[in-house]
Structure formats: C-alpha cells, structure tokens
Design brief:
Layout (H helix, E strand, L loop, with lengths): L2 H33 L2 H12 L3 H17 L1 H8 L5 H11 L4 H17 L7 H15 L1 H13 L2 E6 L5 E6 L2 H19 L8 H13 L15 E6 H4 L7 E3 L3 E3 L1 H9 L5 E6 L18 H11 L15 E4 L14 E4 L1 H6 L6 E5 L4 E5 L5 E4 L18 H4 L10 H7 L13 H4 L8
Helix pairs in contact: 1-3, 1-4, 2-3, 5-7, 6-7, 7-8, 9-10
C-alpha cells in the first residue's frame, strides 16, 4: 500500500473514531440528564467539555432526543459511520415531530439505508433523506410547518470581524432560490465588462447590495436567467395527492405549497411533470456535439444537482457532460449526458479519477486516486409506481386558482415548448420568454 492510500485509510479511521466518541458523549449526557435537571447538569459539564453553559445545554438536549427518538442514527454513530454534525442535521429535521413520528422516521431511515448499502451518509444527504421521510410520515404536519415557517420569515444583520457584516434572510425556498438566480445572472453579465478584477463572489455581494439600496447594478439580466425547476408528479399537480414535490436546489416541499408556487402568476419557476411510473422526466435525443437548450434544460431538470454524490451544486448551474465522450462515439442526448459542476467536470479527466454516471437510474460511481469507490443513487422526486389515495384539495391552495381553470394547465403549458423529439417550437410571446409556470 502506497503512502497516499495509507493516509486516506488513516483519515477514515479518524472519522470513525470521532463518530464513536460523539456517540459516547451524547449518550453520557442523556444519562446525566436523567439524574438531575438540565440546567444543573449543563453547569457541571460545561468546563469538562470546554464549551459555554448554553452550548452544553444544547448538547444535552440533542443527546436526550437522539437516545429517545433516533436509535438507528445512534447505532450508525456507534458504528463509526455518522458524526455528531450528521446526527444534528437529522435531529433538526425531525425536531417538530412528536416522539412516535420521529421514531417511525428513524425506523424508515434504517430500512432505506439497509436496502442501499452504498448510500452516502454525508450530513446533507442524510438530511434530505430524512426530509422525504418526514413528508411521508406526517404530510399534513409538513404543510402546516411550512406555512408557519413562512410566517416567521425575517431579515437580520450580524456583525462580523474585520469591519464586515453578514445578512441573514429567512425567506420561502422558492423566493430565495429565485433571488439567488437573479443575482447570479446579474453578476455574470457584469463580469464581462468589469474593469476592477472582482471575483464572482465579490460581484454577487456588490450586486445584492446595489439592489437592496435601490441602485442600478449596471446590467439587465435575461428574464430566463432566474428560471428554476419545480418537480411535480402528475397526480399532485391535479390535486389528487399532496406529496412527491421538489424544489430545485432545495429538496421536498408539501404538495399544497408546490401548487401555490405553480399557480402564482408571478412565479418564475418552471414546472416539470414527472412520470408516476418512474419518478423521472422523459428523455430527449440529440446527435450533434453541443446540446441544445432543450436537452440542457431536461438534464438539469432530471439530475437536479451535480451528479457527484457529495456535490450539491444545482444542475442548472452545471455543465452538460457527455457520459461517453463525443470523440469515443458518444452521442449528444439526455440519455448520454449528466450534470457536472465545472470543478468535477474537469476532475474526471485527472489521473486516477473515474466518474461513471448511469442516466437511466441516476447512479454515479466515483473512484478516487487512492482506489476508494463511492456510489450513490439519488432518490426520485416521488416513489415510482406506488398507489396513491385521493386527498381533498387544500383550501388555501384552492383560493389561488382562477375559477374554471384546471389546476394542471400551468404545468402542461410550461412543458409545451418541447415537442416529443425535443425540438423547441414557437409559442406565444407571453409563454416563450418568461419561463413562468402559469399564464394569465
């Protein structure tokens, strides 16, 4: 074994040891909480842990919740597979649930991970899997929590170091993603003419400040630049069910919230209908080297993120990459393409790296120079082929629809710009440029 492989093995062992130590700390704190009140225990253990009393109290609370509500996650920690940060992400997602629902989510999570031994246990991936299970176990509560969170939206300023400060904006996920897309588009346009040598991050910050201060950042972004995908199963778009929806770059959202976004006349989200039998959008073919906008959009809608398991860059901001290289006979189509961020697009050609993506299943296998192999398959937007029961339409969503309109019309119209062969065709101007999910 070479030095590189030995160092990677040492890192892997250190991570496992840290995870087991985290499990020991959390179970010990939970046991101490049984012997005395939390405040007293926090005062006693704070100097032992080297943290403030407030942080000690938070760790005690997490330890109690973990041992009582998430035994599967605790088992993964003891096995050296999940550290405290990953466990905390799962705890945050399940925090609003009652004990029975939380334990049910934990049980389903264990079943999912047992069925897919190659599943990534990165904290972000664990949180996303857990969000889907929370939606499945408590769909009505999920909608209520989303509405409550929207009522608590806020905008705050946090002073930082070196004469800098940070803004914290809590906004609905669809609005926040649209804002980010708009700022990105403005910054990218400004970058072409910028004479100060500013980085893209600097341009984003300057553009955002200009917009908030009512100043013109000096460019006008294409209206389509802020388009983001909203995935809906057909039966959810028809208000027959309330599950299976996902916002691009964020994750699952309740069906009523998704329909409200879909039916908002000011929405800049592009709705994507998913086949209930497979949970994935349909494919489009191409035979030339450079993909058309239609193929790029379809791959972005299908993959949702960079296909590398630990990268969560939204696919709409990634490159289209030929899975089988063009010079090796690979054709240009969604069936031979995947989304890769510019970093991983370049990484796949580096010595020792291989990235294999299977478009039909979404499975990606990455082999690193040390010989380690990582395989992951993203979960579909909804569970394919399952039977669904009809649910009553959400009153709040019903109020946003125009009388006499079919609720699925906005979604179908948004996709009508693509013919079965994938060619873009002409459509009314109100449809062509706005990329809106609904039409007046």
């Amino acid at each position: 074994m070479g030095e590189r492989e030995e160092l990677i093995r040492t890192l892997r062992a250190a991570r496992a040891e840290r995870a087991r130590a985290d499990a020991t700390e959390m179970t010990t704190l939970a046991r101490l909480a049984e012997l005395d009140d939390v405040r007293s225990v926090a005062d006693e253990v704070a100097p032992e842990l080297g943290v403030s009393t407030a942080e000690a109290a938070r760790r005690i609370g997490r330890g109690v919740a973990l041992t009582a509500r998430l035994p599967t996650v605790l088992t993964l920690m003891r096995a050296g597979r999940v550290e405290a940060y990953g466990a905390r992400r799962v705890l945050d997602v399940t925090a609003p649930l009652n004990d029975d629902h939380a334990r049910r989510v934990d049980e389903l999570l264990g079943e999912r991970l047992a069925a897919d031994s190659s599943a990534s246990l990165l904290p972000a991936n664990l949180a996303r899997r857990t969000r889907r299970l929370v939606e499945k176990v408590d769909p009505e509560g999920q909608t209520a929590r989303a509405r409550a969170a929207r009522r608590n939206r806020s905008f705050q300023l946090r002073p930082g170091e070196h004469a800098m400060s940070q803004f914290t904006l809590d906004a609905p996920a669809n609005v926040a993603a649209a804002v980010k897309s708009h700022v990105d588009a403005l910054a990218n346009d400004l970058r072409r003419t910028d004479r100060d040598g500013r980085t893209l991050d600097q341009l984003r910050a300057d553009v955002a400040c200009d917009l908030l201060l009512g100043r013109n950042p000096g460019v006008s972004a294409p209206r389509a630049a802020a388009s983001v995908f909203l995935h809906l199963p057909v039966d959810t778009a028809l208000t027959m069910t309330d599950d299976g929806c996902e916002l691009d770059g964020y994750g699952p959202v309740p069906g009523p919230i998704a329909r409200e976004i879909m039916s908002d006349p000011n929405s800049i989200w592009r709705a994507v209908l998913c086949d209930p039998g497979t949970g994935r959008p349909v494919d489009l073919g191409r035979t030339r080297r450079r993909p058309t906008a239609a193929v790029r959009n379809l791959v972005a809608a299908r993959d949702r993120e960079c296909c590398v398991p630990w990268c969560h860059r939204p696919a709409r901001r990634c490159d289209f990459d030929h899975d089988t290289a063009w010079h090796l006979g690979g054709h240009t189509s969604a069936s031979n393409g995947s989304a890769k961020c510019d970093h991983h697009h370049a990484r796949k050609d580096d010595p020792g790296w291989t990235i294999h993506h299977e478009p039909d299943t979404g499975t990606t296998t990455v082999t690193t120079p040390s010989g380690a192999t990582h395989t992951a398959t993203p979960e579909p937007v909804h569970e394919p082929g399952r039977l669904r029961t009809r649910k009553r339409r959400d009153p709040a969503c019903r109020s946003t629809q125009q009388p006499g309109r079919q609720p699925a019309r906005p979604v179908i119209t948004a996709l009508s710009a693509l013919t079965p062969s994938g060619e873009e065709r002409a459509e009314p101007a109100a449809h062509r440029t706005s990329r809106r999910a609904t039409h007046r």
